[in-house]
Amino acid sequence: MYESFAYEMALLYQQMDQVYRSAFIDTASGLQLEMVAAILGIRRGLPDFAEGEVTFERDAGQDDLEIPLGTLVTTEDSEKAPRKAYKTIETKLLPATATAVNVKVQALDPGEDQVVAAETIVVMPLPVAGVKAVHNLKPTQFLGKRLETDDDLRQRAKSMLLASGKASLTAIETALLSLPGVREVKVVEPFGDRYGVLDVYVDDRALDGLPPLDWLPQGAPGGAQAAPADAPAPALPPTQGSIQDRKRQQERVAMLRQHLDQVRAAGVYLRLGGSEPVEVDGLVHIALAAGADPKVVTGEVEGAIATHFARLGLGQPLLFPHLTQAMLAVPGVNNVEEFALIPRRQGQPLEGAPFLSRARRIETHRVASKFRLGQLAVVSEVQPLPVTVEFRTADLTAETYEQATTALRDWFQGLAAGQTITREAIVAQLPESTPAALESVVLTPHHPSPVTIQTAGELRPGFAEKPVLATPLLAYSAELDLVGALKVIGPEAATAAARQTLYAAIEARLQTYLNQLAPEQAVSLAALAQVATIEGLTVVPPNPADFSAQRDGAEVDRLDADTATLQVDPFERVRLTHLLLSDRPQPLAVEITALELALGWVADNIPNVIVVRVDDRTVRENVEDPATSEPPVTPPPTAGEANGPAREAEVEALKTALQDAIRTFPAQPPGQDFALAGLRQHLETTPDRLNQFRGLTLRVTELTAGATSVDGRQQTRALADTRPLQVRSLEYLAQLTPPATITVRS
Fold it and tell me: Closest Cα partner for 596 from 708, 689, 714, 676?
């Protein structure tokens, strides 16, 4: 009995001690710590959401499919592995020409436990019409904030007490760290020529891509002042994102400024800035333990690397021993054979060559730098790298084509993994029957690793990639240049710069499509329109009249208007030279480069007449007087003969009138070709509407014009050429520029 009583008393004292300790910030834990922190208005930081990418697949069809925003996808439900749900966080268009599209997804529930392995998201509770399957090629990743631990919450609560003094570093950090989505805050006081200024760097996913310290104007040295409360917020710098992304960023920056204003003391100027992302692309070669599944292990290694990058703070270096330790901790990894990393700032590599494992570390030496994982490839064995070789040679035949293919295939088989390929080496391996110009050699790798480096003259594969010759060999003897126009609609709210970025992406897609066509395969205009269709844009069916082809600079008739296809002859390479992409007609500038006239004077063709005065009446006769047999009276010279300068003045006036006639040439509807014969008729009839030059006869003997389109296309036509200047349906004749000099021949 005494023992039972003593046990109950000890248990009661223990519980009372826990109650006592739960009232203090240093000893409380769990729910009790949250209650203590709530007194200060602090809540435990909730975790972010896991993210990843899934692939929606379909059968080839005739219509485009749209993957809506918020489409639900899940894993399979079982007792050992409960179902985990994800939703799409972007809208993607699946063109009729494609059978798969990758879409970004985010977990419905927050937390690191929502991460799933590769090929586990395979269920669509509400299937999308036309989509037959969904799966995730790679594991999902958790790159955001984790659930705040007791130690972190305890430290933040203490910091809140210290933050009661405005403009202290702790106050500023605490004000922003309490916001959801803010991963890290770094406050720096730039000593030197600036006083009263604090640089606040925020690592916030919603603001990724914005340049650091560019959200607020710079303060004057020694006299930085806070902006007036009623002053409008400076506009964000332009980004490559959509209008919705920019609006979201502006709202986010406004909220950050509002929270900073609550802790900013008078006279202290806070310069708000973002992190400076350094994207790191990498190739990792690992050795597997016996019996390990390569697909599973490589996926887990990718996840471990992503987690390591997510834990790196602002300004911290990337230490290779720590990265290697994270990879070796993955079950099934026996060794890290080698890895290569390429850090890029704003798309430009920090160094000319990749960082190998022996480099030990990567430093940026910038306070706002933040390493982020870009493209990553993890392999357990050397991978083949198919390389398409393209070159031009004269008089190519089927026999010489086969000789070149055999020679290059044998040479590629002897290459080692990671060996550099140069254009000079390709030319040297070609047989004498197919000599190639060095500048025509193009090397195109297929599915290269993120560390593969390609320049105009060489291809440097990754250390774990062995080049192999891709077939067919793209050898050609002539280039078939394709000229055309496509009407692209949307997005209406996009800026001019954003439109040009989209148009450049479309042209790149189209050229890639043309490069992938089999030899002699006809080019379908409808297929071009489908390839040009990207998210947010609608491409109007093409007009065959807008397209034409040139071979070695001369126009050729290859377009079949009935089937809307471009015929390609053997050993021809189709190249997209000028493609006009627009949602409205664009101006076509035409300049008359040469104009030559043949002039005649009417008075020079009239016979001499007798001019006499009879009773103050003028009598003109063209014959001698039969009564007197005297020769006729010689008439006075015409005005032109008597006064040569008068004729010159009349010719100059005619030139001016012709230049005005060119400028006032009647407008034409978009898409109507411009024929020089029509301009010739206009010039020969228009200048003398006022009967000003009735003493002259005018004939245009030479007429040359040049046209320049907004896409850089240039055309030249002469009067002897029966072909008109092509005006595509997205073009209109904006202006005619007369020549500076008009040549006159009598």
Answer: 676
Distance of CA 24 to the CA centre of its chain: 56
Per the domain annotation, does 310 fall within a domain? Answer: yes
Structure tokens at 270: 């806070």
**Does any domain span residue 140?**
no
Residues 143-184: tens digit of each pLDDT: 777 787 888 878 777 766 555 555 577 778 877 877 777 888
Same-domain pairing of 658 and 702: yes
In b/e form, how buried is each residue of 41-78, taking b as 16+ CB within 10 angstroms?
Answer: ebebbebbbbbbebebebeeeeeebebeeebebbbeee
Same domain, 312 and 363: yes
Do both 739 and 607 map to the same domain? Answer: yes
C-alpha to C-alpha distance for 61 and 685, rounded to whole angstroms = 57
Q: At which residue do the structure tokens 């960082």 appear?
A: 355
**Dihedral (C-alpha) 398, 403, 409, 414: value to the nearest 10 degrees?**
-170
User: Do 529 and 454 sit in the same domain of this protein?
Assistant: no
Cα–Cα distance measured from residue 621 to residue 625, given in angstroms and rounded to the nearest whole number: 9
- Determine the Cα–Cα distance for residues 687 and 613; give it in Å rounded to an integer: 37
Domain boundary among 476, 508, 526: 476
Report pLDDT digits (tens) over 254-276: 888 888 887 777 677 888 888 88
Q: Identify the domain boundary among 111, 135, 159.
A: 135
What percentage of the chain carries pLDDT values higher than 70?
85
Q: What is the mean pLDDT of residues 376-397?
A: 92
Instruction: State the chain's mean pLDDT as an integer.
Output: 82
524 in the same domain as 643: no
Q: Find the Cα–Cα–Cα–Cα dihedral 644, 649, 651, 652, rounded to 10°.
A: 150
Span 214-223, pLDDT tens digits: 444 333 333 3
Residue 352: left (phi > 0), alpha (psi -120 to 50), or beta?
A: alpha
For 446, the domain range is 383-476
What gap in Å lies between CA 331 and CA 304, rounded to an integer? 11
First to last CA, the chain: 140
Which residue spans within 463-522 are E strands per DSSP?
A: 465-469, 474-476, 478-489
pTM over 0.85: no
* Domain shared by 527 and 460, yes or no: no
400/361 same-domain check:
no
Same domain, residue pair 720 and 738: yes
Read off the pLDDT of each residue in 568-580 and give the average, rounded to a whole number: 90
Q: Tell me how many domains the chain contains.
A: 7
**Each residue's pLDDT tens digit, 290-311:** 989 998 899 889 889 988 998 8
Whether residue 271 contacts residue 200, with contact meaning beta carbons closer than 8 Å, is answered with yes
- The C-alpha angle 474, 475, 478, rounded to 5 degrees, equals 115
> How would DSSP label each residue in 231-286?
SPPPPPPP-SS-HHHHHHHHHHHHHHHHHHHTTPPTT-EEEEEE-EEEEEEEEEEE
